């Protein structure tokens, strides 16, 4: 009897020891998780402090005395004081007290950089640093789709960079700013919150990228190559997403009715961009097939199709068709655009084009035929 009682006590002690060990392990995991989060928040604080300091330093830096754009006044006198105050306020907020950045409205720490980007009085070098700061914020994924204000923040970034004011300066600084704009365009679309962008915001991004493509023609080959590559990446991201979006038709309407212009697209309030921006972008790509260049021959002005732009447009159109494939059939408006708009441009362009353009037009038609033949 005594042995049985002793055995029961031993089992109870063992169970208590197991529970204590389990509790200790859980507490250790919690402490490790807490320490990890604290270190991550601290690294974000250090990063933001570095970027704010860099922007302020560039703004305060005196321009090159040999530059033709040299000003007689100090940089801080020509700069809007509200910009400096907003940057200083952000720097004061960073470490005191320690912040939980993932739960904070992103506009609090993004807006000062966007103000610099959109300012007319800021040197191009400071604009480039501010663009890099916003890109770094996106790469660090400080905010996510669960962060309050994430949708407003990601759309505000689009508005900020597409409203970028570039001070008249040397070509090197201009190329630096344009290159960072291209990097930021891709950074936005690759961010996890990009699906929160509106259709208008995505169309604005693509339009901005094409403007850089045009500007880069007279600046440098490397910049133009990067601009075209960025444009291709944007088209890839937009039309890859389109394959996963379904169209909704109204009561009594047929999903296959291509003449119906009242088709609405299935998007909840938070689902962001979708088929509508893809259709607008596809319209834009079709219009690129008729871009003309003005040539002066013997004192007379002659217009001709810009073959480089035509080839570039056909590459993008082919990519869009290849990515969507048979999924285009789910979107009657896009299918109608291909049938009416695209084929009109292909026929009119193919009638008087070079062998290279004609070859690409034939490839485009063949791709469409392969996907939509019955």
Automatic annotation (TrEMBL):
Q: State the Gene Ontology terms under molecular function.
A: guanyl-nucleotide exchange factor activity
Q: Biological process GO terms, please?
A: protein transport
Q: Which UniProt keywords apply?
A: Guanine-nucleotide releasing factor, Protein transport, Transport
UniProt lists compositionally biased (Acidic residues) regions at 8-21
Please report the stretch or stretches of sequence annotated as the Mon2/Sec7/BIG1-like dimerisation and cyclophilin-binding domain: 109-243
Checking Pfam families in the record gives:
DCB, Sec7-like_HUS
Biased composition (Basic residues) is annotated at 26-39
Q: Which InterPro entries match?
A: ARM-type_fold, DCB_dom, Mon2/Sec7/BIG1-like_HUS
SUPFAM superfamilies to which the protein is assigned, alphabetical: ARM repeat
Record domain Mon2/Sec7/BIG1-like HUS: where: 275-373
Q: Where is this region: Disordered?
A: 1-40
**Superkingdom classification of source:** Eukaryota
Would the keyword Transport be found if you checked this record's keyword annotation?
yes
Indicate what this protein is called per its UniProt record.
Uncharacterized protein
